[in-house]
Write a structure and sequence with these properties.
- Helices cover about 35% and strands about 25% of the residues.
- It is an alpha+beta fold.
- Strand 3 (about 115-120) and strand 4 form a beta hairpin.
C-alpha cells in the first residue's frame, strides 16, 4: 500500500488541475463574446471618428465658399459703370458675377481687375470662374465683357443648395429671378448695357443710386453641404431631389417640407447649413 500511495496522489492532483470539456467551451464562448464586444466598440469609435471628420470637412467646405465670396464682394468694384450682376432666371445655375480688384502690380501692362463668376454645376460643386480685365478697363457692363466660365476652381463639393439674397433697407430679395427698379435693373444700368440674361444690382455706394431708397446694402448667402458618403446615400435612395428642392425653398424649414422621417438620422445630422451676411463696400 505504501508503494502505491505516491502514484494515487499524482493521479488525484492531475484530476484536480485539469478542465472538463464544458469548462473549456464556456471559457472559449466568453472570450468570443468579449472579442465581439471589443470589435464593436472599436468599430463604433472608428465610425464616430469618420462621421466627425466628414462633418468637419463639410463645415470647412461651406466656410471656404463663404470666405472666398466675402473677399470678392468686399473687393468688388461698385460705381456708375460696374456692379454685381445676377441671372434673371431664378432656375439658373449661375449665382452672380462681378468685377473685383486684383492684388498685385499696378503696372499699366498688368491686368488689375478680375471678372469673377460663381455657379453651381451638375456635380453639386460651387465653381468660381475668373478672367483678367485690362488695367484701363473699369466697366463690367460693356458688351464685349462676357461672363467668365474658365478657368474655373471648385470651392466645395457635396453642395445641396446655395441661396443668395439681396439685403435692402426694407427686406431681403432673392438675387436671381426678380427685378426691381431700385435694387436690380435689366437692360441698362445708368446708361450702360447690362449683359443679356442678367440684372444689374444697384448698390448703395454707387454715385447715381444715392437718391434711391431701396438699394442693396449687403448680400446674404445660405449654403447647405453634406459629405460625399451621405450625398451618395441620398442620391441612391431617391431622397436627394426632394431634399434639394426643400433647401432651395427655405433652408430653415427643410425638415418640415419633406418627409424627414424617411431620411436616416445620421444623414440628417450630416447636413450642415451655414449663413453669412456680406456687407457691400
Amino acid at each position: 500500500m505504501n508503494r502505491m500511495t505516491p502514484h494515487l496522489e499524482l493521479r488525484s492532483r492531475s484530476l484536480v488541475c485539469g478542465h472538463t470539456l464544458i469548462e473549456v467551451l464556456t471559457a472559449v464562448s466568453i472570450l468570443a463574446v468579449m472579442m465581439v464586444l471589443m470589435y464593436e466598440m472599436v468599430e463604433g469609435i472608428f465610425k464616430a471618428t469618420r462621421n466627425q471628420n466628414h462633418g468637419i470637412e463639410s463645415v470647412a467646405a461651406g466656410r471656404r465658399v463663404l470666405d472666398v465670396m466675402t473677399g470678392d464682394l468686399q473687393n468688388g468694384l461698385f460705381n456708375e459703370s460696374s456692379t454685381l450682376i445676377a441671372p434673371t432666371n431664378a432656375a439658373s445655375t449661375n449665382l452672380f458675377a462681378l468685377l473685383t480688384n486684383r492684388r498685385g502690380s499696378n503696372s499699366a501692362s498688368t491686368p488689375r481687375f478680375l471678372a469673377v463668376s460663381y455657379a453651381l454645376n451638375g456635380s453639386n460643386q460651387v465653381i468660381r470662374s475668373y478672367a483678367s480685365i485690362g488695367y484701363g478697363s473699369v466697366n463690367s457692363l460693356s458688351t464685349p465683357l462676357t461672363i467668365p466660365t474658365a478657368p474655373s476652381v471648385p470651392l466645395a463639393k457635396g453642395v445641396l443648395a446655395v441661396q443668395v439674397r439681396a439685403v435692402t433697407a426694407n427686406t431681403n430679395y432673392p438675387l436671381s429671378g426678380v427685378t426691381s427698379s431700385n435694387w436690380g435693373v435689366t437692360g441698362s444700368y445708368n446708361g450702360r448695357v447690362v449683359p443679356s440674361g442678367y440684372n444689374a444690382i444697384v448698390a448703395n455706394s454707387t454715385g447715381f443710386a444715392r437718391r434711391l431708397t431701396n438699394c442693396t446694402q449687403a448680400i446674404e448667402v445660405w449654403i447647405a453641404v453634406v459629405n460625399e458618403q451621405d450625398y451618395a446615400l441620398l442620391k441612391s435612395s431617391g431622397k436627394l431631389a426632394p431634399l434639394v428642392a426643400s433647401l432651395e425653398g427655405d433652408p430653415t424649414r427643410w425638415r418640415s417640407l419633406i418627409d424627414a422621417r424617411s431620411i436616416p438620422a445620421q444623414v440628417k445630422s450630416a447636413i450642415h447649413i451655414q449663413k453669412k451676411t456680406i456687407p457691400l463696400p
